[in-house]
From TrEMBL, chains A, B:
Pfam families: FCD, GntR. It comes from the Bacteria. It comes from Nocardioides simplex (Arthrobacter simplex). The keyword DNA-binding applies. GO terms for molecular function: DNA binding; DNA-binding transcription factor activity. This is Transcriptional regulator, GntR family. InterPro entries: GntR_C, TF_FadR/GntR_C, Tscrpt_reg_HTH_GntR, WH-like_DNA-bd_sf, WH_DNA-bd_sf. PROSITE patterns: HTH_GNTR.
Length: 221, 221
DNA sequence: CGGAACTCACTCCTCAGACAAGTAGATAGG
DNA sequence: CCTATCTACTTGTCTGAGGAGTGAGTTCCG
């Protein structure tokens, strides 16, 4: 576990948010002035201002020149996509593992012939070599999505879709940074998953999904 | 309507957002440096920094010291809770199965002694008979949540929490409509899960979670 | 030739100080 | 009592300086 050095402004924002949630300042009330609050938190005034801006962007605070900074909401409608974007990539991959393994098992049982064909087409598209990294990642995502769609569960599909942006960024980065991508082994793994779903082998499909994503996780740490 | 003088930082943030949405910088790409962008927008560096912080709070931008400022999203999207409320309860339970089975396996590996004790306490509280159906459901949810928390993965916790309201409604309904609830068998199933996590048996923990939720799903159809 | 260690330019991060602009309560005058 | 002004306090903006992390190019060694 790496000790990530978080910017002071972010720390200050989090600290403020906890104090707001704790009820230190009621809704609509004014916070202490910047010149009071900054030394109290042990940061410079500009740093505190950046923290306030950050919370303002999230809708928690609002400042009025000459008057002060006011609390506009105590309960942040914790936007789900925001959580994902901020989250550690390892946590995201683990959640993806849960979703996709389950979906693969369900897909093996429920897939229609049409969906099976769609998975096969996505697999073929994925196998084509591309010079552009992003295109390859997109093709990979399309294959995985086809599997999830075949599970006939809209909740799982929505979950998968919400994971895509965050995973995409991480995978593009990983491939760009020359992490040795064993294309051949990668392709056989996907091919096996395709066949397991074709054979209606739910257990194998889940296992294959799991091992594939686990190795992805390990290559990211 | 009076000409409301908007702070420069807010104007800069809006301007940046429109340029991002216009596709001037792709998703995941780096923005020009502060020293370049500030004069270009006609504002000071600190003002630009506050604008960036504001967008960071909204999840559109993310800055990494030494590297630059990157686009993390082009738009802030839909409401997740709405999707769940509309969804079929079977789909929700299936998604819960995916999440909780994975979480149970991780919890078996990662749980601290404190967390194990918390799970035990939740189990004891759950065992106490209650006249009120809702209280029993809440106690059950608390137990399952304790397991997910022990998995040390904030994404899984948030996912679980988002499933709670919908699941709760369904379970209360089910218990009210006299669906034979075998309390004794139910309790032993939860007790076994507790022990599997105590014994660090990840495989067993996952299997127990899965069978428990599967039977719940079948009793709902 | 290949890879590891180093250098260095570039980036964001933080602080301090100064002044401008706006607000709201206190105050003085009608 | 009402109004206009004053004034202390607040946020807004800019500048300049130095600290710290990143990543690409370079050098050095086996």
């Amino acid at each position: 576990m790496q000790v990530r050095r978080e910017p002071l402004a972010d720390q200050a924002a989090e600290l403020l948010l906890t104090r707001i949630r704790a009820g230190e300042w009621q809704l609509g009330q004014k916070l202490p002035g910047e010149t009071t609050l900054a030394p109290q938190l042990g940061v410079g005034r500009s740093t505190l201002r950046e923290a306030i801006r950050q919370l303002a962007g999230r809708g928690v605070l609002a400042s009025r020149q000459g008057a002060g900074v006011f609390v506009t909401a105590l309960d942040v409608p914790e936007d789900w996509d925001l959580v994902l974007r901020r989250a550690d990539i390892v946590s995201v991959i683990e959640a993806r593992t849960a979703i996709e393994a389950e979906a693969a098992a369900l897909a093996a049982v429920r897939r229609t012939p049409t969906e099976l064909r769609a998975i096969g087409r996505a697999l073929a598209a994925r196998a084509r070599r591309r010079p552009d990294v992003e295109e390859h990642v997109d093709a990979d995502m399309a294959f995985h999505r086809a599997v999830v769609v075949a599970a006939h569960n809209p909740v799982l599909v929505d979950l998968f879709d919400s994971f895509v942006p965050r995973s995409r960024i991480a995978m593009v980065e990983m491939l760009r940074l020359g992490t040795a991508a064993d294309h051949a082994a990668d392709h056989t793994a996907h091919d096996l998953l395709h066949r397991a779903i074709a054979d209606r082998d739910a257990d194998l499909a889940a296992r294959l999904s799991r091992t594939h994503l686990t190795s992805l996780k390990e290559s990211l740490t």
